[in-house]
Description:
The structure holds two protein chains of two kinds.
Chain A: H1 3-8, E1 16-19, E2 31-40, E3 45-54, E4 57-62, E5 72-75, E6 80-83, E7 85-90, H2 103-112, E8 115-120, H3 131-141, E9 147-152, H4 166-171, E10 176-178, H5 187-197, E11 204-206, H6 211-214, E12 219-220, H7 223-228, E13 232-233, H8 235-252, E14 256-258, H9 264-275, E15 280-284, H10 312-323, E16 329-330, H11 339-342, H12 359-368, H13 375-382, H14 384-390, E17 405-415, E18 434-444, E19 447-451
Parallel strand pairs in A: 2-5, 2-6, 7-8, 8-9, 9-10, 10-11, 11-14, 12-13, 14-15, 15-16
Antiparallel strand pairs in A: 1-5, 2-3, 3-4, 6-17, 17-18, 18-19
Helix pairs in contact in A: 5-8, 8-9, 9-10
Chain B: H1 16-33, E1 47-52, H2 58-69, E2 73-78, H3 90-99, E3 104-109, H4 114-121, E4 125-131, H5 137-151, E5 158-162, H6 169-180, E6 184-188, E7 204-206, H7 209-213, E8 218-221, H8 227-230, H9 237-244, E9 259-261, H10 274-277, H11 284-302
Parallel strand pairs in B: 1-2, 1-3, 3-4, 5-6, 5-8, 6-7, 8-9
Helix pairs in contact in B: 1-5, 1-11, 2-11, 5-6, 5-11
Amino acid sequence: xxxSKKSKISSPAYAGISKQAGEEKGSGFDLAITGGRxxxxxxxMDRIADVFVRNGVIKKIExxxxxxxxxxIINAQGKIVVPGLIDMHTHLREPGREDEETIYTxxxxxxxxGFTSICCMPNTQPPIDNQEAVKFVYQKAKDAKCKIxxxxxxxxxxxxxxxxxxxxxxxxxxxxxxxxxxxVVNPQVLRNALEYSRMFSLPVISHCEDLNLSAKGVMHxxxxxxxxxxxGIPSLAEETIVARDVALxxxxxxxxxxxxxxxxxxxxxxxxxxxxxxxxxCEATPHHFTLTHEIIKTFDTNAKVNPPLRTxxxxxxxxxxxxxxxxxxxxxxxxxxxxxxxxxxxDSAPFGMVGLETALGLVITELINKKVLSWTQAIAKLxxxxxxxxxxxxxxxxxxxxxxxxxxxxxxxxxxxxxxxLSKSKNFPFGGTKLQGKVFCTIVDGKVVYQG
Amino acid sequence: xxxxxxxxxxxxxxxxxxxNLILDTAETFKQIxxxxxxxxxxxxxxxxxxxxxxxxxxxxxxxxxxEKRLSAEVxxxxxxxxxxxxxxxxxxxxxxxxxxxxxxVVVRHQASGVxxxxxxxxESSIINAGDGAHEHPTQGLLDLFTIREKYKKIKGLKxxxxxxxxxxxxxxxxxxxxxxxxxxLSVCGPPTLLPVExxxxxxxxxxxxxKALEGADTVIVLRxxxxxxxxGLLPSLREYTNKFGIxxxxxxxxxxxxxxMHPGPINRGVEITPEVADGPHSVILDQVTNGVAIRMAVLxxxxxxxxxxx
Lengths: 452, 310
């Protein structure tokens, strides 16, 4: 063994990532992440250990007795090592609005936020409703910094009328189908989608919004919309469709995933459905467990999102749903929009805010540090659970799993500055917020793709 | 004394002192308006832009007269003849106008929050002349002025706002203004035209007009937009008139010395009968007269004026 080289990295002052000069004969690992607290929700692991990677795959997780050996070593002492985060709800805008985001720039934002896999929603221009469009996304994804998984449309052109060629979509690699951005208005169409998708164990993701009830609404219907004189989107607009979709899932025995749950009533409906054994899962966004409609008082169009920011009571219900397991996943609903589109009258601005680069900080600051979720619970909602719902290989730190790993510095505090986002868009309403917990580095298939 | 803000965006959050300052200043201007020569040089050299994105008769003329009587230089803009129709954004339009050196902008827009938006992209003082269903502060102020002039007080008076509260910016400014000044406030209308949680603004809520009117001093009658019927919020205007129309018969429930107000334009025979609108208790035209004095006071105070006018 090459003792002189070993002594070089034995200094306690050593920190960060180092490439050892020369080959380490005998060890055979490409990468070792050493001394960190390793959390894997699936295997319930939560202990200090070293993680060894070879050929992009996790090969060994153990507490090394001597100095760990690998070509590249990441000293993760004081850090938390978790499976690479998975965002099951991202809008990447390509094709169609490359001025707002591309698959590449979205992936840069993703890895900066600790995500190693993101699922792009199909409401692009044109929508991803056929195999050629899916192939286009996967072609572009070859240059991306992280793994991109494509979600296909439920209906052709997201019109809610005819089903897409779902078998074709599955063969070209979609991990779910959704008309996100719009509900499937006709329940018979959704019933057919659910029954047909059962053949492929393909999850159907539902955007729950009754368009007649949300109508011209631009924010949550409540006291704040009353004061501001703005058209409201009542909680009812979401809840009636959640109730309908739960009934459809029960009837068809298919799996349904409810996107971006935002109201207390929706959380209650899903909780009851789960108790009855209905195959329903759901997600909540960081902004829906953090912000309320009060923020609209400044008429900041960056806070205009769909579903809208709701009341304090709803925020508490989302947190409750996260902690009791009703809400399976935390997803960003990262929705980039250009400055020109957002710098307009509130009524005319599009819905959406970016979220890839702040999600983890908000989870740590708002949920973990405030004791809503334990680290294991929180990480499960960002890794294991979306991986299970979408049948993805990642999301775990386990021997022979892909080496998609996120190393988190839980103590680092930082101030959100949207102008520094790697995302092409900066539409984010709470810049200046202090967050705790930052990405230390992001690893995809054993390669460090981002260092904080 | 001066106003806290250099903009007038709404009455929400204003202090009683500030409102009194505006009303007192308006009183002085009202006296000036009764003189043979009604022009003062107060705003000489100040350029005011009237930016009207929505049709308006009363408010636009009232502001323009107020500006001219203060000797300001006045520019009128209306969206129908602007580049808004060529697809220019609001931000670009107003920044271009301001680039021509303006000092104050009076804005009327169909979207709530536009005056706030302008404060973020302009240097000028912004006066809200009505934004969506949000606020119409000068209307609220002229309503307060008219009532104070008549009763010599506002505190303790029983005021009822009747009609389409949901879509009314006048209702909101009146609710803020009258509650800041200590009036006893109620709103009354069909539940489809009352916004959710309106009671949290500190008003009693009625859908029974006779109960709401019992012992009231002032009734503010709101205009019923003709679209409300097609929008499904009312089965018919006829039915609205039967249930909520202000008729002479119903006025018997009011206090003896009552007043009837309406921000205009009136749908005669829908929300109010001509008999009541033109009757002895109606102060509808006084509201219009007072509007000019209120707007002169607001323009004067926002341009840096303090208290008494010389």
